[in-house]
């Protein structure tokens, strides 16, 4: 992993933590705008990292709900 990817990944990880703590789910857009003024390459890598993390979280939540629904349905069949 190169410097660009490493920095983008760490910044995305930190942004996710701050978003969860503050409830600002669009904070990553503001961070992206700051990066755009300084480094388009880092901005693009960062936004990619954020999209990947947000997509993974949504997919994980979907799967968790599927399991809950299946267990609830199995419990109601008894």
Could you describe the 3D structure shown?
There is one protein chain. The chain is mainly α. The protein has one domain. Helix content is 88%, strand content 0%. The protein contains 3 helices and no strands. Helix 2 packs antiparallel against helix 3. It starts with a helix and ends with a helix.
Features of this protein?
3 helices, about 80 residues, about 90% helix, mainly alpha
Sheet of most strands: none
> Into which percent range does the helicity of residues fall?
over 70%
Q: Total helix count?
A: 3
Mean pLDDT: 95
Output the structural class: mainly alpha
What is the rounded Rg?
17 Å
Strand content: under 5%
Low-confidence stretches: none
Query: In the residues, how many domains can be counted?
Result: 1
- Helix/strand order: HHH
What gap, in angstroms, lies between the N and C termini? 52 Å
Tertiary shape = elongated
Number of strands: 0
